[in-house]
């Protein structure tokens, strides 16, 4: 029996489904609309925490605060406070002071130590936070969480910017004979080309997990899920992925070697992959999810580089938007990825429609291809016949609306 069959999706689950977690959100005035713009996840016990962050040289102030909290607390967290509408990035010493002030305010509001709190922000770069509004909003969060009504929904709405839909998923599995839940929530639809992290994503689980094992699993899983999506080729200043494990399922702590480790890792990957695909599907202005699978590369790493080059090509993305079966753009992207490729052995197909064999075009039904490319999901398969490496990347088409949305982002 494969490990994938050892977990199942919990359709009604959310980030508050794992034992010990509450969440909530409210509007504090950072957005011009009345949509929620401030939220929190709180755990009733110190939760083992792991995180990955953007590698953009210009890192937003909240990343420094969160790094410090996790390091100073022995890789434990009790709460994450998140705002949207303002990235608090490139805001100098005042921005850093404001991020620390957010942490202090949340710690006071929930009766926690400051190093038990992580901070995340998303939104416009280069503007200072209106801290009077933020502080007032944080003070009101405990009451919102205490109400317990649609807390996960409120939180998901609070972290959105240009997103059209919330992104959340929950799975269940058995560990040591006990039910364990893993859940996640994310935001992101623009400035999406992660590098060692994702836009903003948060994961909760009630499994007991060894701290080092959770960090290693998070990093490895990010590489094959969140780091394999792209919308526009831009890596944000604020990308952050944080995972918290309450341990309240009372299983023996998970780590490699535990009998249920592989099943837990597979379920963990499913959550990350589902969220990553949801982000790609919700790309700004997108009308189609695009999936690129590369097989037969010299290594998995080489396959990843080629898949991301294809999925990130503006010409490929434009062709998908136009439902144009222009395989020339695909093979050109494969050839410029900077990875070993035999120019005589490449096969390409669009769904089940084969358009290239042995790097030579073959006749195909253009009308059939048009119909396929007009669907809401487009799968591009590239077989290199050059090794055993494989990878899959996700992205979206490039539309007129992407330009419209980003031309007026600040207004």
TrEMBL record:
Q: Name the chain's protein.
A: Arginine biosynthesis bifunctional protein ArgJ
Report the record's Gene Ontology biological process terms: L-arginine biosynthetic process; ornithine biosynthetic process
Q: Where is this site: Involved in the stabilization of negative charge on the oxyanion by the formation of the oxyanion hole?
A: 122-123
Gene from which this protein is expressed? argJ
Which residues are involved in binding substrate?
Answer: 161, 187, 198, 284, 406, 411
Tell me which residues this entry annotates as catalytic: 198
**Organism per entry:** Fontibacillus phaseoli
Q: What is its main location?
A: cytoplasm
SUPFAM superfamilies registered for this protein in UniProt: DmpA/ArgJ-like
Q: Which domain of life is it from?
A: Bacteria
Q: What is the lineage of its organism?
A: Bacteria, Bacillati, Bacillota, Bacilli, Bacillales
Query: From the UniProt record, which GO molecular function terms apply?
Result: L-glutamate N-acetyltransferase activity; L-glutamate N-acetyltransferase activity, acting on acetyl-L-ornithine as donor
Q: Site annotated as Cleavage: where? A: 197-198
Task: Identify the GO cellular component terms for this protein.
Answer: cytoplasm
Question: Which pathway is this protein assigned to?
Answer: Amino-acid biosynthesis; L-arginine biosynthesis; N(2)-acetyl-L-ornithine from L-glutamate: step 1/4; Amino-acid biosynthesis; L-arginine biosynthesis; L-ornithine and N-acetyl-L-glutamate from L-glutamate and N(2)-acetyl-L-ornithine (cyclic): step 1/1
Its biological purpose is as follows: Catalyzes two activities which are involved in the cyclic version of arginine biosynthesis: the synthesis of N-acetylglutamate from glutamate and acetyl-CoA as the acetyl donor, and of ornithine by transacetylation between N(2)-acetylornithine and glutamate.
Q: How does it assemble?
A: Heterotetramer of two alpha and two beta chains.
EC numbers, comma separated: 2.3.1.35, 2.3.1.1
Key words, A-Z: Acyltransferase, Amino-acid biosynthesis, Arginine biosynthesis, Autocatalytic cleavage, Cytoplasm, Multifunctional enzyme, Transferase
Q: Which NCBIfam families match?
A: ArgJ, PRK05388.1
């Amino acid at each position: 029996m494969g490990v994938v069959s050892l977990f199942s999706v919990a359709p009604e689950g959310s980030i508050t489904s794992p034992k010990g977690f509450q969440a909530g959100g409210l509007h504090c005035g950072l957005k011009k609309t009345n949509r929620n713009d401030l939220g929190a996840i709180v755990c009733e016990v110190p939760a083992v925490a792991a995180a990955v962050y953007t590698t953009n040289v210009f890192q937003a102030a909240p990343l420094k605060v969160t790094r410090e909290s996790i390091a100073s607390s022995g890789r434990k967290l009790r709460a994450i406070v998140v705002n949207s509408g303002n990235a608090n990035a490139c805001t100098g010493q005042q921005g850093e002071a404001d991020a620390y002030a957010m942490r202090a305010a949340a710690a006071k509001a929930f009766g926690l130590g400051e190093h038990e709190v992580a901070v995340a922000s998303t939104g416009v770069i280069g503007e200072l936070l209106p801290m009077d509004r933020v502080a007032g909003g944080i003070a009101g969060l405990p009451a919102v969480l205490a109400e317990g009504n649609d807390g996960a929904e409120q939180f998901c709405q609070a972290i959105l910017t240009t997103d059209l839909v919330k992104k959340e998923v929950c799975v269940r599995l058995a560990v040591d004979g006990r039910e364990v839940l893993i859940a996640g929530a994310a935001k992101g639809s623009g400035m999406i080309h992660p590098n060692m992290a994702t836009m903003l994503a948060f994961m909760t689980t009630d499994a007991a997990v060894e701290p080092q094992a959770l960090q290693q699993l998070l990093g490895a899983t990010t590489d094959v899920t969140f780091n394999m999506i792209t919308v526009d080729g831009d890596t944000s200043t604020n990308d952050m992925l944080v995972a918290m494990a309450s341990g309240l399922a009372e299983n023996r702590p998970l780590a490699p070697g535990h009998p249920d480790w592989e099943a837990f890792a597979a379920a963990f990957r499913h959550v990350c992959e589902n969220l990553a695909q949801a982000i790609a599907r919700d790309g700004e202005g997108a009308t189609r999810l695009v999936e690129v699978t590369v097989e037969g590369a010299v290594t998995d790493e080489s396959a990843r580089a080629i898949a991301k080059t294809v999925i990130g090509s503006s010409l490929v993305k434009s062709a998908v938007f136009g439902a144009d079966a222009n395989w020339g753009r695909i093979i050109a992207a494969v050839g410029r990825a900077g990875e070993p490729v035999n120019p005589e052995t490449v096969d390409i197909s669009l769904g089940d429609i084969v358009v290239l064999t042995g790097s030579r075009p073959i006749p195909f039904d253009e009308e059939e291809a048009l119909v396929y490319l007009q669907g809401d999901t487009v799968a591009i398969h590239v077989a290199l016949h050059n090794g055993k490496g494989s990878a899959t990347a996700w992205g979206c088409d490039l539309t007129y609306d992407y330009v419209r949305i980003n031309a007026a982002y600040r207004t």
